[in-house]
Amino acid sequence: MHPLDSLIWSALSGRQSNFAEGGVIALRMRADIGPFAAAADDSPDAVAALGALVPEDGDISLLQPKPPQPPTGIAVAMSALGLQMTITAFTADRAAFPIEPLGDGDAAEMLALALLTKPGPFRANTHRLGRFLGIRDQGRLVAMAGERLKTDGFTEISAVCTHPDYRGRGYGAALMRAVGDRLLTEGETPFLHTYADNAGAIALYRKLGFTARCEVVHAIWTRA
After folding, report:
1. What are the boundaries of each domain within the chain?
2. Chain-centre distance for alpha carbon 133
3. Which of 107, 140, 163, 175 could bond to 145 as cystine, CB 3.0-4.6 Å?
4. Exposure pattern of 201-219 as b/e (b: 16+ CB <10 Å)?
């Protein structure tokens, strides 16, 4: 099986096991990092163990081509078709902006920007999953992008967001190139996810050089 077909399991049982909770057949991210979870396979025992990881007052997110049916006591709160895209080289068109690294000292600003723009699940310590870059205007963080899920040879570009007052300037594309170019130089293949009906985002990603790899489903499980 390709590592991106079982991405969450591959990441949490491998390169990002330090962010995982659970057991030998089901894992989820720590709640302060993110909502993602996966079972080792679709066996009844593994799916039941995955269901047991759903918090009483929260949810977990599955992201794979064919999520399993939830076990008894678990409901599907949302299910949406997505697209997984990879890239081997960025197109030549690029603009120069003052891009800087972000870290723990920027965590509050990063969380605020993510909560405002909603690029996807982003929690207090999501930034610790990988390296993040940002663009500031007079000291104010107005755009960012970084790394999220990592498996053998592949790293996801995620949390690409720009403050509404600064959109249309090319900040997002520039940050994606900066994050992705570094990964390519290091021998990694960058990839990303988007909802399948987000035509504008897909058009931008194709313009940058991304190609579709497969469809995935983002499913959210909660307690029934």
Report:
1. 7-81, 85-214
2. 15
3. 175
4. bbebbeebbbeeeeebebb
CB 60 within 8 A of CB 35: yes
As its CATH architecture, domain 85-214 has 3-Layer(aba) Sandwich (3.40)
| pLDDT digits 0-9 by tens, 122-136 | 999 999 999 999 999
**What pLDDT does 52 receive?**
98
Q: Which two tokens stand for residue 159?
A: 């949390």
Structure tokens at 180: 């992705």
How far are the Cα atoms of 93, 122, 195, 207 from residue 200, in angstroms, in the given order?
Answer: 18, 22, 10, 11
Indicate the residue type of 144: M
Radius of gyration of the chain (CA): 17
- Residue type at 103? G
Which segments of the chain does DSSP mark as H helices, in order? 7-12, 44-52, 107-117, 171-185, 199-208
* Strand ranges for the chain from DSSP E: 20-22, 26-29, 37-39, 59-64, 74-86, 99-102, 132-137, 140-151, 154-162, 189-195, 211-223
Summarised one tens digit per residue, pLDDT across range 130-184 is 999 999 999 999 999 999 999 999 999 999 999 999 999 999 999 999 999 999 9
Are 74 and 58 contacting, i.e. CB atoms less than 8 angstroms apart? no
Amino acid at site 31: A
Burial of 70 (0-12, 13-18, 19+ CB in 10 A): buried
